[in-house]
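Project standup — Tuesday

K.O.: blocked on the structure for the chain from last sprint. Re-posting the sequence here as requested.
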Amino acid sequence: MSKPEKPDPLDQLVDYNRAAWDTQVKNQNEWTRPVTSEQIAAAKGGDWSVVLTPTKPIPREWFPDFSTREIKVLCLAGSGGQQAPILAAAGAKVTVFDLSPFQLGQDKLVAYREGLEIETVEGDMRDLSAFPDETFDLIIHPCSNCFVPDIQPVWNEAARVLKPGASILSGFTKPIFYIFDFEQMERGKLEVAYSIPYSDLTSLSEEKRQAFIDAQEPLCFGHSLTDQIGGQIKAGLNITGYYEDVWPQYVISNYIAPYAVTKSTK
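H.V.: unblocked you, prediction finished:
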């Protein structure tokens, strides 16, 4: 009798990362902590900002005027009780789409607490078949496409569900971040160890990969700029805005900004 084939890690990736992000909520990861009532009250009064990368807020001029008409916003792979409630309080009609039910639960929590209308939908960011073509006036997409191995479907689907003239605001980790040994970087050292494209599944040693799995950390992928920026253009989007950001806790930020945000218009 032949031995049963070992399951393909890619086949299990979605289930694994879903459970890993549920665990991040339990552990109160900073990207899972809901905004406060004070922040919601300020947003209702017009004083608000949201981030897609660690520190720098999105320029307010990148947003449509939420007071002039019903603006439909999709927070794509962007739950956690942070961006969506702020935008809903500012006057947008918000839908949150995410893989993790616990992360979506954080948005539901704030919506219930503050009396906000937020629709939550569970799913994989590469498949937005839950939405018809040309549904949204704006997509907010924080640094989350690092959790899927192929991001072209993400851009293709985003372009499909955007209305003509609408934009997607996307944060992403630049590929230079992934060439360094992560454990050494956490110790304040930059040691080149990997090539791009990077994958926790194939770039790491079995021992290091298992350490991530034992800690229930989400598995990541480092994509090229061809995939991050060129992929948006390939999907029919025009890059109309760009800025970079740092995360001071990582030594790489002393030398180069490892995060970027694009505004891309259909």
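K.O.: great, moving the ticket to review. Residues 9-174+223-265 form a domain with the Rossmann fold fold (CATH 3.40.50.150). The radius of gyration is 19 Å.
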